[in-house]
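quick q for whoever's on today - can somebody do inverse folding on this one?? i tried earlier but teh output was garbage lol. tokens:
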């Protein structure tokens, strides 16, 4: 009975977050649900889309709906690693250096246009995103909990961008691709802009969760039941990416764990205390597509990662 009440509380909180964000954002229900799922699964999210489709605004709204510290880092070509993680500052009173924490030390961190900075700055995120800690001058500093990175980027073919290293991409639980709105949705966007809702979202959107509640819900999601045959299904799907002639690089075991965590979060959001194969299929595309690399000949033929993932789901038998 207690587990049922906790699951009800989780779903109530999810609906409240969706309601708050929907006050400003139009037609991005799938992206919002995946962002919430990533938060419950203790994962990071990469949001990709052309300029002007509300990537940054949506990330800010999610942070606004949660009562925890938030910071934003604008990535630029001249940004240094110390601008992200922090640096040593000399104190003349004590004649010693002390570590001044950078903007990465927050609960929710928005990295805007992450592909505007070169690999040197990207490497500063490797440890903190995977291990939730920063090591500087031999001293390890733990990140506050909960900790979540929301990064936005424009498509890599746009001028002045750098391709993210594979090790960096692999640290994101989801990659969400944001599409253009429909004509009706765009009319609603114009109405929101006309009434000042978009520009004054700080007054419109309110926090509905705190850090303690998120930690409790994350533990509940982690404890969700999953049968061994569903875990074998996940393993088979990921294994197929390593033996597919259309792919130059398949997904790693970290991807399998990511599918598991994400499927549990989706199951919890759906009001269930167990994971189904449908939950696995639901998260497969946003979890895998940024972790696999197409074979050059397939890329030249116009294929994409989504097509390959769909083919794999058709080939692997679904457990009954």
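ok took a stab at it. sequence:
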């Amino acid at each position: 009975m207690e587990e049922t009440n906790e699951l009800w509380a989780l779903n109530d909180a999810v609906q409240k977050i969706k309601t708050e964000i929907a006050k400003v954002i139009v037609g991005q229900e799938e992206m919002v649900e995946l962002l919430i799922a990533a938060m419950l699964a203790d994962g990071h999210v990469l949001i990709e889309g052309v300029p002007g489709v509300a990537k940054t605004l949506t990330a800010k709204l999610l942070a606004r709906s949660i009562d925890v510290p938030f910071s934003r880092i604008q990535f630029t070509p001249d940004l240094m690693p110390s601008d992200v993680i922090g640096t040593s500052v000399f104190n003349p009173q004590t004649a010693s250096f002390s570590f001044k924490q950078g903007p990465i030390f927050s609960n929710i961190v928005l990295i805007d246009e992450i592909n505007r900075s070169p690999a040197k700055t990207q490497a500063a995120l490797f440890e903190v995103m995977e291990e939730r800690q920063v090591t500087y001058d031999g001293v390890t500093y733990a990140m506050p909990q909960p900790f979540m990175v929301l990064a936005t980027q424009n498509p890599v073919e746009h001028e002045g961008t750098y391709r993210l290293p594979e090790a960096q991409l692999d640290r994101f639980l989801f990659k969400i691709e944001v599409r253009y709105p429909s004509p009706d949705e765009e009319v609603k966007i114009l109405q929101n802009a006309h009434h000042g809702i978009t520009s004054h979202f700080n007054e419109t959107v309110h926090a509905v969760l705190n850090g303690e509640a998120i930690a409790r819900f994350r533990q509940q999601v982690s404890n969700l039941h999953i049968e061994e045959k569903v875990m074998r299904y996940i393993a088979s799907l990921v294994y197929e990416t390593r033996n597919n002639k259309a792919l130059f690089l398949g997904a790693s075991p970290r991807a399998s764990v990511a599918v598991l965590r994400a499927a549990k979060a989706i199951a919890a959001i759906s009001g269930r205390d167990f994971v189904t194969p449908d939950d696995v299929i639901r998260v497969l595309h946003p979890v895998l597509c940024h972790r696999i690399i197409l074979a050059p000949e397939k890329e030249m033929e116009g294929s994409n990662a989504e097509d390959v993932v769909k083919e794999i789901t058709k080939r692997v038998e679904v457990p009954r």
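fwiw The first strand starts at residue 45 and ends at 48. also The mean pLDDT is 91. so keep that in mind when u check it
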